[in-house]
Design a protein that fits this description.
With about 220 residues, the protein is of the alpha/beta class. Helix content is about 40%, strand content about 25%. It contains eight helices and 14 strands. Pfam families: Response_reg (PF00072), Trans_reg_C (PF00486). It is found in: Cytoplasm. This is Transcriptional regulatory protein QseB. InterPro entries: CheY-like_superfamily, OmpR/PhoB-type_DNA-bd, Sig_transdc_resp-reg_receiver, WalR-like, WH-like_DNA-bd_sf.
């Protein structure tokens, strides 16, 4: 999943960025209203984390304008404004959730997962495919009932594949899901992660579709 963080506070921004990357999300960071408006116009984000007090724009106005232009990704407002009227204004402007600073990172991660499930039209909390099981909330993977230790990028790659196991994902699509702005992506990075997953899960679990990309193996009925 690709997220957009709109936040001008460097310390909060760095903390949220690192937390979301550890959770396996690709995340971009806009530090003022003008950069945020340009980023939102790309239409590539699955969820937006929005501060209200921004340089070069007001967060509420930014949200209203974006919603009016058809922006439909879920939005979680992250702000120090804790008055009831501020919450009402934010939700009425089009936000889906409202979290007051200082907030707990685990709670933010849980609210993010809930909104992403809702956006995808899913209620399931755990993905299964053959002998594989992936639990996004616990950040755990099992094969044949045994836990498999994955680094965050490996987990994010498997998460992308297992969500739609019949789809073939191109390398570019997987890079977009795993990496945000400014993160260095080597020419063979996805191949390295695929190789590592095959070593841990079994060589047959991820299929290479030559000239296209990767998908999980088909499960025989």
């Amino acid at each position: 999943m690709r997220l957009l963080l709109i936040e001008d506070d460097e310390m909060i921004g760095e903390t949220v960025l690192e937390s979301m990357r550890r959770a396996g999300h690709a995340i971009d960071w806009a530090r003022d209203g003008r950069a945020a408006a340009l980023s939102l116009g790309n239409g590539v984000y699955d969820l937006v984390l929005l501060d209200l007090s921004l340089p070069k724009a007001d967060g509420i106005d930014l949200l209203k304008t974006w919603r009016g232009a058809g922006g439909d990704a879920p939005v979680i407002i992250l702000t120090a404004r804790d008055a009831i009227e501020d919450r009402v204004r934010g939700l009425d402007a089009g936000a889906d959730d409202y979290l007051v600073k200082p907030f707990d990172l685990d709670e933010l991660a849980a609210r993010t997962r809930a909104l992403l499930r809702r956006r995808a039209g899913r209620t399931q909390l755990v993905f299964t495919h053959g002998t594989l099981k992936l639990d996004p909330a616990a950040h755990e993977v099992f094969k044949d009932g045994e836990p498999i230790a994955l680094i965050p990028r490996e987990f994010a790659l498997l998460h992308a594949l297992i969500e739609v196991p019949t789809r073939v994902f191109t390398r570019a699509e997987l890079e977009e899901k795993l990496y945000g702005w400014g993160e260095e992506v080597g020419s063979n990075t996805i191949e390295v992660h695929v190789h590592s997953l095959r070593r841990k899960l079994g060589a047959d679990q991820i299929v290479t579709v030559r000239g296209v990309g990767y998908r999980l193996k088909r499960i025989e009925a």
